[in-house]
Amino acid sequence: MDASIILEHLYLVVMTVIFSVVVGLPIGVLAYLKPAGRKIVLWSVEILQTIPALALLGLIIIALGPGKMTVISGLVLYSLLPIVHNTCVGLENVDNGIKEAGKGMGLTQLDRLISVEIPLAFPMIFTGIRIATVTTVGVAVFATSVGGGGLGKIIYQGIRTQNINLIVSGTVSLMIMAVLFDVLMIWINRRLAKGAHNKAF
Amino acid sequence: MIRFENVKKKYGNTVILDNLSFNIEPGEFVVLIGPSGCGKTTTLKSINRLIKPDQGKIFVNGQEISQVNPVKLRRKIGYVIQQIGLFPNMTIEQNIGVVPKRLKYEKKEIQKITRDLMEMVDMSFEEYAHKYPSELSGGQQQRIGVLRALAASPPIVLMDEPFGALDPMTRATLQKEIGKLHKKLNKTIVFVTHDMNEALDLADKIIFMEQGKIVQMATPEEMLANPASPLIRDFMRKSSLATDPLNLTAADFMSANVISVQKKKSIRECTDIMARQHIDSLVIKNEDETYAGVVTIKDIKKHGKSSGTIGEIEPYQNITSDILENAKDSFDKLYNSGDNYVVVLNNDQTVAGIISKTSMATAMADTLWGDMQ
How far apart, in whole angstroms, are the C-alpha atoms of residue B89 and residue B356? Predict the structure, then answer.
């Protein structure tokens, strides 16, 4: 198995997560700020999540044509839910006294978000990003069916040629990648929390 | 400084502020008090536009506040809340500097302000400035909460039950400190509480509210002397008992309804009284009305004769307590002596009453739930 295939898969995952954060974080913040639209937004990202990944990629192919960008856009849509959801809920969960104090002292809404609310909600937001990342590692397997490449290619090849070794090696690589991402990000989150903790205690 | 003109606010069909008009002078310490739901907090939050009234006008410093940018308005009005609301992700110094920083004060100036303010409440800058709120006790956190509100020297400070969540000792200390700060800094303070003692201690003027209306606006002395409604009287009495158990005396818990006889009364008469009143002992007084002791029905039986006077029987020296004695000490006596009651004596040694377990229970119930009679 070629290392470039693993790199290709990594590329898909990392690009997907970056775009998901860029799109999902603002949507989560907006959903938090506008309680009227919150239900619709959360409901929409949940619906997206229920569409089978393969079908979603198929639909996007029709719109965008095959290729890496198609794969990444599909995967982004698919990984929005945990990020949007955790951002919105994380911000909502910030203590009301803290929010009221900020407002009463004359902090603007943007200032409150940046200086207080997002920093306090960050551990939860980061957990959302971690869940999105680990899910994407698995879902990106479908990329190969729309010309995106990655480890899915190895597994499909193994299925077509009935080569157990190929299937197993592809699968194990995926599993290791998912576990590594998970462990690494848990560690980062803990370090960040500990940093705050060290400062605090 | 702050003027309300016919301010009205409704939530659905519930009237929260009912045509409220009043005036607060510069430098005044005004306490808003009343039963829950009376509109005191709504009144407070209308001043910094956290709540928008339906009708009427509010003026701060001569300006109609609906015409002022809320962010600018709030930066000139300090705000302290019960939940404290320090920002946990910022150090104490950063917390105190929140508003000055946004008003573009220089770094050095902010540090000087922080240092000076912390000194005023006896908190060392070196020790605490770089700590995070979670490292401080509740009382210390609220001190910082108050300092944060004062940092940009706003002429007005709003306080929404700032000490409501603190233990009584800490609360008392912070009350003293806020009183001092007010005198020193000459701020106009609007303070919401439901604790009448707090109001009486701190206020220049108390505004008592009920159902969105002002029932009475007066100085503490005036309110104590002439409460405008039974509810206010109730508030003052209940809180004076309920919140300060340390100051209760034997007098607060005794029953004055004590049956006592002079030594010259005949034994026969005494047994009659005891039978009629369903009691098994009598408080005996000397000729000059001073306390002599207690005679029980057992003592009379032991004496054997029903002729003669009660003074012939050696009275039992029941436990006694001075009328001004701390109530707790009287209770200790009651429980530790094994006697059925404590005889409470006036300064001149005459009998004032007795404290029994029953009188104690009644007095406690009065304290908790109001007058039981």
Answer: 56
CB pairs under 8 A between A and B: 75
Residues B332-348 have pLDDT tens digits of: 888 888 888 889 988 88
Can you tell me the distance from the alpha carbon of B325 to that of B353, in angstroms, rounded to the nearest whole number? 13
pLDDT confidence band for B241 (50 / 70 / 90)? low
Model confidence pLDDT, tens digit, residues A72-100: 998 999 899 999 999 999 999 999 999 99
Model ipTM over 0.95 = no
Report the alpha-carbon distance of residue B244 to residue B236 in Å, rounded. Answer: 12
The Cα–Cα gap between B343 and B352 comes to 8
SS3 for B18? strand
Q: Tell me how crowded residue B287 is: count the other CB atoms within 10 A of its CB.
A: 10
Rg (CA), chain A: 19
pLDDT in tens, B87-98: 999 999 999 999
Q: B22-37: b or e for each residue (b if 16 or more CB lie within 10 Å)?
A: bebeeebbbbbbbeee
Total number of domains constituting chain A: 1
Q: Global pTM? A: 0.72
Phi, psi of B198 (to 5 degrees): -60, -45
Contact assignment for B134 to A101 by CB distance below 8 Å? no
The long-range contacts involving B212-218, CB below 8 angstroms and separated by at least 24 positions, are B212/B9, B212/B15, B212/B16, B212/B17, B212/B18, B212/B20, B212/B38, B212/B39, B213/B18, B213/B19, B213/B20, B214/B20, B214/B22, B215/B34, B217/B22
Checking phi first, is residue B26 left (phi over 0); if not, alpha (psi -120 to 50) or beta?
Answer: beta
Instruction: Name the pLDDT band for B368 (thresholds 50, 70, 90).
Output: low
pLDDT in tens, B148-176: 999 999 999 999 999 988 888 888 889 99
Give the nearest partner residue to B81 out of A101, A108, A116, using CB atoms: A101
Q: What residue type is assigned to position B285 of the chain?
A: K
CATH number at residue A118: 1.10.3720.10
The answer to which of A122-126, A130-134, A141-145, B44-48 has the lowest mean pLDDT is A141-145
Cβ neighbour number for residue B204 with a 10 Å cutoff? 16
Report the pLDDT averaged over residues B212-220.
Answer: 94
Q: What is the DSSP string of A84-99?
A: HHHHHHHHHTS-HHHH
Write out the CATH class of domain B2-247.
alpha beta
Nearest to A106 among B85, B91, B99 (CB): B99
Fold classification of B250-369 is CBS-domain (3.10.580)
- Predicted pLDDT of residue A194: 66
Strand partners, B190: B30, B158
State the number of CA atoms in the 13 A half-sphere of A126 facing the CB.
Answer: 18
The C-alpha of B45 sits at a distance from chain A's nearest C-alpha, in angstroms, of: 9
Domain boundaries, chain B: 2-247, 250-369
In eight-state DSSP terms, residue A116 is: I
Angle, alpha carbons A34-A38-A43 (nearest 5°): 160
Judge whether A78 and A117 are in contact, CB under 8 Å: no
Taking an 8 Å cut-off on Cβ atoms, the answer to whether A107 and B134 are in contact is no
* Residues 6+ positions from B319 with CB-CB distance below 8 Å: B333, B334, B337, B339, B342, B343
CA dihedral B251, B255, B256, B258 (to 10 degrees): -140
